[in-house]
Amino acid sequence: MLLTLTTTHRPATDLGYLLVKHPGKVHSFDVPTGTAHVLYPEAEEDRCTAALLLDIDPQRLRAQRDAFELSQYVNDRPYAASSLLASALARVFRSALRGASRDRPELAATSIPLEIHVPVLRGTPELVSRLFTPLGWQVTATPIPFEAELGGDSRYVDVHLSGELRVADALNHLYVLLPVLDDGKHYWVAPDEIEKLLRSGEGWLAAHPEKVLIARRYLAHRRSLATTALQLLEADQPATEEEAELPVTRRAPLAEQRREAVLAALTEVGASRVLDLGCGGGALLTALVKDRGLTEIVGADVSTRSLEQAARRLRLDRLPERQKDRIRLIQTALTYRDDRLRGFDAAVLMEVIEHIDLPRLPALEAAVFGHARPGAVIVTTPNVEYNVHYDGLTGMRHSDHRFEWTRAEFAAWAESVAAAHGYTVTIRGVGEADEVTGAPTQLALFKISEVTA
């Protein structure tokens, strides 16, 4: 999956400053569905091209519901630009999307000649033109034909855009309109997608003649979300947490509330040496390192790719020695005993257990609660009862979840583990609770019993 961005502004190599990616290097980033690479096939004074190449790992793709058995492998996802490419773009060009450039701030605020090429995009030439032309782009969209023996055109087009725009505006146009043209997001669409749409559409979406179509497709045809987004656009006001009168209440994302709940639990138990078990790409580790009260932080995961991503996220190679000495990343499987995990004040399993096959869960319990035996263990997991509040969600919240428990099932598991390994346990909800279904996330705080301590 490929996208290129070219400028003839002189010196053209200043594009590297705007994208915050050096033209003389190949930059690689782990993303949920594979690896994104940024490279420069040409970098001269009079012309510079940056290419975003997304290498899809088929095994990470979520198969479509009711699809055939091999749909995970047989599809157009690795080739046709879509929300997968838009997500990668947001990941690797985060600063550029905001229009931020420490080295060339004036250039970042200036319209420069740009050319964009998307070789394979699902859509029609007419729709591509309707979406991009009102934004100041000259559009050439050429249908991609089938093989000669079949004849006719496929549902894909080869798209070239040209115009004078800010790089930030160009990237935000792509971030919104690639999934709109594809008309199918690769992840479940939650209310916080409204905020992303309005943020990326600031300054252009409200006046776009196709804003209704854009809102509906970007928000996966969820009518309530599209209606809210369009109302906000009509009112010309930002989506903020304080706007209680809005149809969708703005609040901190659940992932953020979950991290805050974990940090509060760590403070409650007075932990200073902490394990983040199943740390993934380092979302929680980033919050932990900001707590000066934590003297030792260890992130553990079975995936070397995730650990590399966590190291980049933490910027371990740039940290001062004093800070770097507080943090370690280790590869280990949580279902096996590992002496390196012993002796810590607390361990966190944040959204981890539901990714483990149920028959393997006793092995994790023995390794963490029995062998590593930290003073406290914090476990969070989805509350499956709350899933009825997610419009359009069928099955589990993530394609890799092996199970999702009710509150009663989670409580029964937690009490059994506590009794077997000499802990006490308290259970609480995370996120806004419903009177009937409870909170979206459930958290168990285990503490070593004073009798066994």
Automatic annotation (TrEMBL):
GO MF terms, alphabetically ordered: metal ion binding; RNA binding; small RNA 2'-O-methyltransferase activity
Transferase listed as a keyword: yes
Residue span, Methyltransferase type domain: 275-377
Boundaries of every Hen1 N-terminal domain copy: 1-233
Domain of life: Bacteria
Catalytic activity: small RNA 3'-end nucleotide + S-adenosyl-L-methionine = small RNA 3'-end 2'-O-methylnucleotide + S-adenosyl-L-homocysteine + H(+)
EC top class, as a word: transferase
Matches recorded under InterPro entries: 3'-RNA_MeTfrase_Hen1_bac, Hen1, Hen1_N, Hen1_N_sf, Methyltransf_12, SAM-dependent_MTases_sf
Keywords: Magnesium, Metal-binding, Methyltransferase, RNA-binding, RNA-mediated gene silencing, S-adenosyl-L-methionine, Transferase
Descriptive protein name: Small RNA 2'-O-methyltransferase
Lineage: Bacteria, Bacillati, Actinomycetota, Actinomycetes, Micromonosporales
